[in-house]
Amino acid sequence: MPMRDKQANHLAMNNRGYEQAGQHPIQFDGPAPDFFEGALLGNGGLGVVVTTRPDAVLLHLGHNNVWDIRIAENHRDEIMTFQEVFERLSVLPDDLTPLTDHPWYQAYCKMAGENYSKAYPKPMPCGTLLLRYDRRMAEVLGHTVHIEDGRCTVDFLFEDRPVVFELFVEGKHDRIWMKTTDAVSGAAVPLFTNIQINSRSRDTSGISPGRSHKGRSRCAVIHTDSA
């Protein structure tokens, strides 16, 4: 029995929450190129956002030891606590629809969002790993986050057969494990044709020029040193 299956069985026997969580996967149909549509993975230190394009899978990386301090701190005395905002909203007219029509609410949202109007800070300060595939041969169908064990699976149609790209972040070490297999037979599949990593990605949907490795790989291991 594979190690992952043994671990899953152990958790299922000793934690009823594992079985319950397995009934509620988070699914997304089709490509998810936007950063906020991506799958969230992590171990409390290393964080990964997995996004998909029609030609590539991107892993946006972050870590608790890496901070982008370029956040503006304007209007510090004007920004309210959540409780203060709720109290202010509670006295607005009941027939106000939508809420954004109120002049105070419009002005407050504009003021509070000013600090985030710059191109920084970046939500993936450690860079982005791009795994490119030939879109003439493969089509991304969607992704699933399995919250019971922290896995993400990305479903593809590759050469007219179902293929699964599976990845997860190791719990005790800052490592990302990945593999691509045939959904029926479990055999390794050479889906990706190009691997590229860049530590200063310009946006959340693409990747700027960086180090590249061409070739076909069925499995990859990434180790991010937190030092």
Key words describing this protein structure:
227 residues, alpha+beta, Beta-galactosidase, Chain A, domain 5, 2 domains, six-stranded antiparallel beta sheet, 4 helices, 12 strands, 37% strand, disordered C terminus
Topology:
Elements: H1 3-14, H2 16-21, E1 26-29, E2 39-42, E3 46-53, E4 56-63, H3 82-90, H4 103-113, E5 127-133, E6 138-146, E7 151-158, E8 161-169, E9 175-182, E10 192-198, E11 211-217, E12 219-223
Antiparallel strand pairs: 1-6, 2-3, 3-4, 4-5, 5-10, 6-7, 7-8, 8-9, 9-12, 10-11
Protein name: Glycosyl hydrolase family 95 N-terminal domain-containing protein
Region (Disordered): 200-219
Write down how many β-strands occur, each being a DSSP E stretch of 2 or more residues. 12
Order of helices and strands: HHEEEEHHEEEEEEEE
**Which CATH architecture of the largest domain would you pick?**
Distorted Sandwich
**What percentage of amino acids are in beta strands?**
35-45%
Give the biggest sheet. 6 strands, antiparallel
pLDDT average, as an integer? 81
- Tell me the domain tally: 2
Q: What class, by secondary structure content?
A: alpha+beta
Describe the overall structure.
With about 230 residues, this protein is of the alpha+beta class. It folds into two domains: about 25-65 and about 125-225, Beta-galactosidase, Chain A, domain 5, CATH 2.70.98; about 80-115, no CATH class. The protein contains four helices and twelve strands, in the order ααββββααββββββββ. The protein has helices spanning about 5-15, 15-20, 80-90, 105-115, and strands at about 25-30, 40, 45-55, 55-65, 125-135, 140-145, 150-160, 160-170, 175-180, 190-200, 210-215, 220-225. The strands form two sheets. Strands 1-6-7-8-9-12 form a six-stranded antiparallel beta sheet, with no helix packed on it. A six-stranded antiparallel beta sheet has the order 2-3-4-5-10-11, with no helix packed on it. It is elongated. The model is unreliable at about 200-220 and about 225 (pLDDT under 50). It comes from Paenibacillus filicis. This is Glycosyl hydrolase family 95 N-terminal domain-containing protein.
